[in-house]
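Standup, Tuesday
Yesterday: got the pipeline producing structure tokens again.
Today: sanity-check two examples.
Blockers: none.

Example 1:
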Amino acid sequence: MSSVPAVAPWVRTRLRAAPGAALAFALLVVVTACLAGAFPRAVDRYEDAGLVHTLHQARPERTTLRVSPPMPQYDMSGDAPGRLLRPDVLKRQYEKLMGTVGGSLSVDRGQSAYGIATQTDTAVPDPFIPRPSGLLAHVQLVAQSGLAGHADVREGRLPRTSGPVDAASPEVEAAVTAATAKSLHIKVGSVIHVPCVGRDPLAVRVTGILTPRDPGRAYWSTVPLLRTPSLVRTPPPDPPQTYWLGALLLPLEAAPALPGTRGEPSRYWYFAPDLGGLRARDLDHLRSTVASLESGPGLRHVRTITGEGTDVGTRLDDDLAAFSQLRSRIAPLVAVAAAGTATVAVVVLLMAGGLAADRRRTELALLRARGASLPGLTGRLLAETAVVAVPAGAAGLAAALLLFPGARTGPAVAAALAVTLTACAALPLRAALAHRAVRVTAAREDVTAVRPSRRRTVAELTLLALAAGAVATLRRSGTSAGQLVSLAPVLTGVIAALLLLRLHPLLLRRLARPAGRLRGAVGHLSLARAGRAQASAVLPLVALLTALTTAAFGGSVLTGVAEARDRAALLTVGADARMDATAALPAHLAARVRALPGVHGVAAASITYEAKPLDGEDTVPLVGVDPAAYGRLAADTGLGTFPAGELKNARTLPALASPAIAQAYGTRRPFLVRLGDGSTVTVRITTVLDRTPAVPGADFLIVNRTGLPDAAVRPTTLLLTGAHLDAGALRRAAPASVTVQTLAEMRSRYADSPLQTGAGHVYTAAVAAGAGFAVLALLLALLRAAPERAALLARLRTMGLTRAQGRRLLVLESLPQALLAAAGGTLTGWTAIRLLSPGIDLTTIALTSAQPGVDAAALHPDIWSLTAPAITVVVLTVGVAGAQAWWTGRRGSVRELRAGEGR
């Protein structure tokens, strides 16, 4: 009969002995691994969305790769034109080029095309085409592949060829888009005569009017003229005149007829990038690929297919470079929150292992005394924690993969694996350090008694040198310093924690002397208890200071971003809402708008943008205002405040001017200003203002409206102030020709880039997670001392200590370290922000593009972000201490004494 083992397996026994602790530990690992795995995937998601958004905004005329061989010298007597322009030849070259371009760049075949187009606009004499300034309309002849698959026939039919076509063909068929037909008065059956060289004009008969499918995509928008005609203005120095320019869409088989025209036809191949297949992580490869195609090995390969002299042109590289620069400025700021949160999370995991080791200190010491080897004990503890941590880490990783699909898996797996390994190693390493020597009772490690070792001093000096180097480099190089931006606040917090731990014993000794002279034992006893705190309290303090520093830094960043957007929106709108028209506004509009809910004030302004001082060529916006209403508006917005008496009406109108205008025309002498209708006014600059609400630009002149000629008195702009203005109600109250802008709508436009909004969301989430881990670290630190405090209260109550005195004792005992962390965190956050602010410009993350007149958004301390987390730490510490005292009082002294003796 087989014998039954007398001893149950270690892991199963320990898990059954403390299921609550194992479950709490598993939950901690799940949450931490999920956050760690989600961070890189969230960054990938918003960076990919930002890249696609950037290229969508750039439009296909910039992002499409255009392969253009040089225009050959066509010999009309030979067959070269027909051979080069045959559809089969063009298609064969297109497929070869697709293999070259598509092999290194993701290409959207459905939006790519090839064909032949005239490079020179040709004037056509047909009288039915409009002539706005008397000039003949011009046309381009385009034979592009895939026309039938990218357009719907609105009228007529698609063009075709009825036989062989060459340079001598007298007539071809074509189609036009509906927009071209409307602007050029073209109908089905219209014939357009395109001049030729040495022969009669080529008759182009329109057989169909088309409606483009997906007109905003690359097929139609690489050359917008294909779908939309343009009204071209003649260049100076000739008098400005305009003429129509449109495109006639020929079938590809009719391309051999183009060499006979004066349009100088040329072949082309367009390759539209597949935006859905672009990833921000491949940005360097994309830029290298585009550079190779433009002027590298890729271009040489293209020329072997199409001939020497072929050019590959695109503005895609400029857009990729702009996105790369934006990302490089935003990424270090996001990494600040990530580094802070990661540091606090690691500390919490280590504290969880330390708490478990302290809870089982007696058990592990007894095992060592009975002969357990240190490697064997460490291995058993590692197996015990791995059984819980590994499945929990896998569950956290799975949750991160499900929450953020479509991103890279490798960084998420690495981050979750790091969390799992840290969680597995925390308890075994802490136990190995505590029990490397065999002893039953542990030596006291009071914070006031333990002297820092030489190794600790060297480590602290090393960290101090790294922090100083990071801060100095960041102040000198800005966000281009890379990861130093993310490490500098964290290193500052760690250095501050180490410094405060050295100052903590000194402060306690200084406070203990005067406390000893006080009546009553609670104050002196609480300080003595605070001095007997373990010197290993470095981890909670590092966690708290790092979290407080990161929260202060992050809150200041978010506040600075919000302030920059508010400032930019206010400079653009000039008030809470704005109504503009190119002509005079209706007389009743101001009264109607003033009656709307939420409108507090209305300031009318008549703006003439074509005013010319001294009858010169330079134009300046001249603003006529009501001094009282406009002065109140300027005071409310803080844009160019001035006394209302500065704009008294007189023969020579006093004027408020921008610094550039005041410098150009002087502030002493009056000067003449000619308005757009030819009338004149005489003004003299009396006050210089940097900003003004009515004009978003940097140049302006402001005068009393009643002193202007009658034609310029009628207001063209209304500036509204009020809370919670309804944009819809304002638009309903105004005529259709009036443009309405609100401050809230304008502000939202500055955050429409997924790269910026995504970075802001990830930053906020990381700071919130760091704050949560810091609270958990504080709770773990309090939980670690809870049993000893409970036993102390029970003993003291047997000596006559009241419940109120017990609450005061625990609160006063916990206050020194809480106040130290709160004050140190506030001071460290302020110091870090002041030290790092010269190297950080928040304008990039705040605004989608450079905003004229908006100063760089600098990082500055935010009082709420500095004080709120620190106050929370103190309140939470006091609250937990008070709650523990209340709960201990309810349980009774005998039970706590027994529990305390057991510990």
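Example 2:
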Amino acid sequence: MSESEIKTSENVEEEERFDVVEDIEICKEMRESFLDYSMSVIVQRALPDVRDGLKPVHRRILYAMSTLNITPQSAHKKSARIVGDVIGKYHPHGDTAVYEAMVRMAQDFSYRYPLVDGHGNFGSLDGDGAAAQRYTEARMSKISMEMIADLNKDTVNFAETYDSDGKEPVVLPSRIPNLLLNGAVGIAVGMATNIPPHNLNEVVDAIKAVMNDENISVPELMEYLPGPDFPTGGIILGRKGIREAYETGRGSITVRAKYRIEDMPNGKKRVVYYEIPFGVNKMKMYEKMAEVIRDKKVQGVTYLNDESNREGVRIVMELKKDAQEEVIINQMFRETQLQSTFGINMLALENGRPKQLNIHEMITDYINHQIEVITRRTRFDLRKAEERLHIVEGLRIAHDFLDELIALIRSSRKDEAGLVADMNERFGLDVIQSKAILAMQIRRLSGLEREKIENEYNQLLESIKDFKDILANRERVLNIIRENLDDIKQRYGDERRTEIMEGNFDVIDEDLIPQEDIIMTLTHSGYLKTTPTSTYHTQNRGGKGIRSISLNDEDFIDFMVGLSNHDYLLFFTNEGRVYRMKGFQFPISSRTAKGTPIINFLPLQNGEKVEAILPYNPEEEAKSLLFVTRNGIVKRTLMSEFKNINRTGKVAISLNEGDTLAFVRRTTGDEEILIAGDRGNAVRFKESAVRLMGRTATGVRGIDLMGGKVVGVASSSMGETVMSLTEKGYGKRSLISDYRLTDRGTRGVKTIVTSEETGPIVAFRAVSGDEDALIVTETGQMIRFHLQNVKIQGRTTRGVRVIRLAEGDKVLRLALTDHEESTTNDDLIENTEIDTDTIEEIIDDQE
């Protein structure tokens, strides 16, 4: 076949190859590819190995420095040279990432025991970055030499580098328990790690305790390893968070700055902070301290200055003469990062897989790694000793037949291979021994050298016997680990820096606040006020009552809720969010105070308004919450979904575009629900028709509004009748049984006949008939009347006039309260003062 025919054949095969199109399911491909990417990030970048506590980049930095012989005994070398060697041979990523990793390894405020000895500007506690790598120099620190000890004795596996041009260690021998000593921080895909540093002396004692008793409990282990020891010092409050983290691998501890109070010559006092929490940017913390003093969140401070220098942190805060220093100090802890939380998440790679580890497992993995390292090192030493013994045995034979050997060599006319063969045949040697004899120097033939060979021979026999005994006896391996740890402790051990303050600091402020019943009111304009229930004394029937709140013109009370100050309150807004706070978190106000804008307590956005306030008690009968939106969407969610709502709020219901949350009701799970629209129709259906959904679900259609909006929600447990009220003051009561039971999502039936004279329906709620109704109009007019005065009528009637309105005025809302006897024949109330025997809960049904 000609050359042109061969090329044509190859081209045809190549075209056929490219003509093949493989169909791949995009979801499957994305899933598999993302999984590969995730595992690559987890294993190759973000998480440390439990054995040496290093991520690949840190391991490659130390290995590169050791191969370049940049050890503590050598001079510092340019950082750029080290970084270049790392990225050129081992780590094919950006030089910035490598340099930043090396910088952190050199920072004594980031690493408890720095692995790199830096020379130059390597950053500061104020968040200043290190100088460029061309300006700084580095070398291995003394303790980092323990990481690579015995690396050349086959103690760990090696793998090919990224370009297959060399080898690199998969893990370092790591005589020091680096993961516990220096901790680790990393963010992977879908997981993260945050392991705190510890004190070397305490870690060594804890490791030895586990070696002595494999079943030691965490409380017993904490007698040796009481907790983290941060390079920046500080104070850890309590041991509960430490124990939780050590037992489960996850926990949270509170760390405070250390301070001392000094007396000044002028009679004033000053607070000097000299240690700050780990990981806190000192400059940002100082700026926050200045901000809270400037904004008068903390009062009584006359001077603040950062006097930190090379000798350490020193932030000075001078106080007024009459200031209570402990109060100011506690306020500073609350308002700034002088007190911060360290979230412990002990996630590391175990056998190449990410795993949440408790303290016992981390120590056990380190011990197992050291057992393997010592076993492999001993096997290496045994092999080398046996190889040397074999050669020494040949040297002994050479000395025994020295004259004959010399004569054989002098008379031989053969090349080396022939001479080796003759020696093997004549003296019983092998090739290795014969070549060793031929390479032996003449001086080794003296009598003195014979004595040295005999001594070496005997020492090798002893060493081989010892190596074999080590390999056969696990306890001897453990003793070697103990000896190594004791040696490390003696050479590198130091005192603990972080103090652990005893006491139950996990008690929150709530436990210090006496329980009492309170009443919370929220006005339509957004003013919230909390008052002790004891403020409102009991009166005889028919009493006039007392003024409960000072209202602005045209303002009125939307909600009035009675609860214990230790109960939770759930605030639901029109945008579908929920906020949770406890009663004691709101300041107590006087009886006649106007209150405080609710935006001072909840982070409400523009246009966001509270639509419901519900006390939350996990032990109450209600098991779920029913949500109804203005456009008729309903959703039912378990109360337990709202256990962990924080002050910043979470989504309570996902709303469709243009929709808002209107009503939230407690339900027991087996009630009947009624929803009414402003066009006079209402639907009645079983609560079970709305399945339970998650907190962020949107819901399902509850009523067909025919273009209108929802104006009210009622449930069968709230009463046997429903009150309907129109915009122009017509109202009536109807029996719930008059509303036939239908499926959700239908138009339902008429609840009141509306016309131009009555206006649309504005309120709809279940009542028992024993309550008093409060009707508020757009101009601020208010009327209170007993519902027994409103007779029960059929669904298809328009009702009776319950309030006479001035021209242009409209009914705005309906609220209910307990009945009290009227002292006059006039039910019309022209002001906003509410007269009651006792103040009870008023629940809103309107916007």
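Quick observation on example 2: The first strand starts at residue 77 and ends at 78. The longest helix spans residues 359-400.
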